[in-house]
Write a structure and sequence with these properties.
Blueprint: H1 2-19, H2 29-35, E1 37-44, E2 47-48, E3 51-56, E4 61-74, E5 79-92, E6 103-114, E7 117-122, E8 134-139, E9 142-151, E10 154-164
Antiparallel strand pairs: 1-2, 1-4, 1-10, 3-4, 4-5, 5-6, 6-7, 7-8, 8-9, 9-10
Amino acid sequence: MHRRALRRPAAALLAIVLIALASAFSPGPGRRAATVGTYRAITLDRLPLPAVERIAATDGYHHYVKLDEAVVSLRADGRFVASFRYFHHHLPNGARVPDSPVMSESYRGTWVAKGRTVVMTPKVGKGQRRPDPIIGTLAGSRMRVAYVVQEGTATRTLRLDLQRDAGW
């Protein structure tokens, strides 16, 4: 019970990166062409990657999440692939972060765009709950995704900034 409830904020943080970007509107042909490409995360909450976030959980505990890398590929056929490398620990406050192997996850789904807004909708496996779409905002070759996380009894907004990577 206790362990399961505490993993949700960390999973939500990863959802930023994994689901990142979306909108329920159909893009025009020019907008889709301008948006297609690979985006690499450059900052998490204005900190360059690798970046660490500590998210308060229950009394006396927090989630330690270190995002090492996030890459999102928006394909011309309306599909996306998002891949992440990260570390996650649920720790008592003040505890030393233990050494551990890096974790990785990948997600696939569909995306749509209108104007400067991009929305990605992940494919959901059997028995999984469909996450809320996360909206990204485009500005030139950058994409910004804001995501609200539960922090103890309050909420906090995290921001992920991605840069279009012409080399991928």
